[in-house]
């Protein structure tokens, strides 16, 4: 009996060439991954353009002045980084109010302080008040699940009203000499002490974010709070840390603003609020959380400051400049909304 040889089924491997992304997508991917580099390039471009329009715009002295102006915005943008990175669609609308409050209280407390110890206690008292405010906000958002925008907006109004009632609407005392010197004096060349202090704080904050467990936990919670919870992280406590840190950083910004301005005024930091949000997004953060940096926020703050100065050189009034700032924030929000819809 003859049997025909069995033939085993054969498989043929077919290689399907992967479609290479187009040049536009590759450029977009590169820009998304190097937003800080793009921000630096934009700053250089604006300085060159300003130098062409008005000689001296890109001089060392003017750049030093621009950095000093951007210093306070940088700190307020860094305070937003804590909240934005931790996710939960969080933005802190109270940081500017905290900064204004801190400037007013610091001027009042320092005017009554006696010696270095008294000044240290006065500043410590201001920071403690800011810490309590941040803790209340964080508890409400993380544990009571009040939406961040609602809670921080309400807290901002509460702070503004409380400060107005406490001061009876009058302008408090001016900054002490040493604080005014810190805000205005030059350390070397065109660089002021204010810029150096803020630079040190930014570097220290960046190291804390990247090198410590508590700092990295902000990124983990912001990127995926479900996975972070499974890994044992305490989501609510971490977000409480974010809002507390944001408030204390805002208070530091307010104290330095007092030194830079020389005296305190009610609501003196209010104009920084929307700019602080825009600076964070320009610096590479995402409203959805998990991405952001202090260095990027600083670059965004400098970029917005240089842009505003260039618009002033062009002869545009305050209303037009504010409209441009609002348009920038609107465009950034629309871009984020589109990216979010594509990811989902």
TrEMBL record:
The keyword Nucleus does not apply. The keyword Transport applies. It is a multi-pass membrane protein. One of its GO terms (molecular function) is transmembrane transporter activity. It holds the Pfam family BPD_transp_2. The chain crosses the membrane at residues 36-57, 63-84, 91-110, 116-142, 149-171, 191-209, 240-259, 271-287, 294-316, 322-338. Keywords: Cell inner membrane, Cell membrane, Membrane, Transmembrane, Transmembrane helix, Transport. It is found in: Cell membrane. GO terms for cellular component: plasma membrane. InterPro entries: ABC_transp_permease. Part of the ABC transporter complex LsrABCD involved in autoinducer 2 (AI-2) import. Probably responsible for the translocation of the substrate across the membrane. The complex is composed of two ATP-binding proteins (LsrA), two transmembrane proteins (LsrC and LsrD) and a solute-binding protein (LsrB). This is Autoinducer 2 import system permease protein LsrC.
